[in-house]
Amino acid sequence: MEQYFLATQKMEQEVMFPSLLRGVFPQQEGAAPVAGSHTDLYERYQLLKAIKPVVEKGLASVTDQSLTGTDGNTDASSDDNDTMDAQLEERLSHHLAGLQQVLTHLTRDTNALTRRYSQILEQISPSEGQPSW
């Protein structure tokens, strides 16, 4: 999770002119651009920026719910509670694994977008050894 937030923070700091990403499509490292891709890096940038507060808010609401949530069924037998606890553990484990996969994917996309933006800036900026006149 921390890697995701660090990657989005770096992206927000480095991408000063998001419009430079318009018409630039994602590509795999060392590969040609994906032929069927309809989403340019500008749209991905907008999506990644929109997702960050949702993730932050989601974490806060999960924390709030866990502090206020109570079990309303006090008459259940011990065996039923053990079964329910095992199911909840399994479901939680499944969802945490899914969340980890999503955050890993988002972190990878964010880092790739930031690298590509840096490459674009290097291409359009004049070389250091040459006069700008």
Question: Which labels suit this protein?
Answer:
133 residues, mainly alpha, 3 helices, 66% helix, elongated
Would you mind describing this structure in some detail?
The mean pLDDT is 80. Helix 1 (2-14) runs parallel beside helix 3 (78-124) and helix 2 (41-68) packs antiparallel against helix 3. The longest helix is centred in the C-terminal third of the chain and has 47 residues, at 78-124. The chain starts with a helix and ends in a 9-residue tail after the last helix. The protein is elongated, with a radius of gyration of 22 Å. Helix content is 66%, strand content 0%. By secondary structure, the protein is mainly α. The protein has helices at 2-14, 41-68, 78-124. It has three helices and no strands.
Task: Give the strand content.
Answer: under 5%
Main sheet summary:
none
- Chain oligomer state: single chain
Q: Give the proportion of residues in helices.
A: 55-70%
Structural class: mainly alpha
N-to-C series of helices and strands? HHH
The backbone outline, from C-alpha atoms, is elongated
Low-confidence segments? none
Mean pLDDT: 80
Cα Rg: 22 Å
**Spatial gap, N to C terminus:** 47 Å
Total count of strands = 0
Q: Helix count?
A: 3
Write the layout of secondary structure elements.
Blueprint: H1 2-14, H2 41-68, H3 78-124
Could you give a quick summary of the protein structure above?
The chain is 66% helix and 0% strand. The chain has 133 residues and is an all-alpha fold.
